[in-house]
């Protein structure tokens, strides 16, 4: 979850901007200029670009940087999250259980990150579950690969109340409440972009990044299991309206600072 009050670092600024660009590539000068809007120095921005290339998160050619690797691979799942297509739920749940008792910390961390991207919740140590209503397109391929490599999977139904289970594991009411707050903020910053957008661009970007992070964390529960469904649809609609307005303001800003 992205903290609206914490300044965004150069890597986050670069990755977030490129993840929201079509296509996800941009010249170094523009990325440096963009980071400067948030108080990041040119030197710090160029160091971040170099490190992202070294980590395989960006490719570089003739002064142009493009998303690559794991970060680039998240683009398709992010796009899906903004327009999710869910199959009809038949009341089944998916379960995953870690198959080995001894794993290095790196593998444990990789699995926890993968399960977060798969929108799974930890039932107990080493056992993860969720309603069986999300397709493979909902998460990056590398997240599925990690989860399948470390876990045994099966399908079943809880004997106890599934609504209570979903509330305990996913806190859909809490997720919906934050979604409503972020939607209100998006409406406010979107309206602000109509007047003096340059002064409001940074705040609008941070608000959009927070909303997008929350959308990616949407548990996407079936409507029968909690209040997050309606709140998620409303947040995604607000984000799409915001994104159209923000993209126009961003292009104008780059033209003005060419």
Structure, explained:
The chain is an alpha+beta fold and 258 residues long. It contains 10 helices and 7 strands. The strands form 2 sheets. Strands 5-6-4-7 form a 4-stranded antiparallel β-sheet. A 3-stranded antiparallel β-sheet has the order 1-3-2.
Secondary-structure-based class equals alpha+beta
State the major sheet: 4 strands, antiparallel
The percentage helix is: 55-70%
Overall pLDDT, averaged?
91
Distance between the termini: 33 Å
Q: Estimate the strand proportion.
A: 5-15%
Radius of gyration, rounded?
20 Å
What does the overall shape look like? globular
Topology:
Layout: H1 10-19, E1 25-27, H2 28-36, H3 42-54, E2 58-61, E3 64-67, H4 69-82, E4 93-98, H5 105-117, E5 121-124, E6 127-131, H6 141-150, E7 151-156, H7 162-170, H8 172-192, H9 197-216, H10 228-256
Antiparallel strand pairs: 1-3, 2-3, 4-6, 4-7, 5-6
Helix pairs in contact: 2-3, 5-6, 8-9, 8-10, 9-10
Quick rundown:
This protein is α+β, with helices and mostly antiparallel strands and 258 residues long. It contains ten helices and seven strands.
Keywords:
258 residues, 4-stranded antiparallel sheet, 3-stranded antiparallel sheet, 57% helix
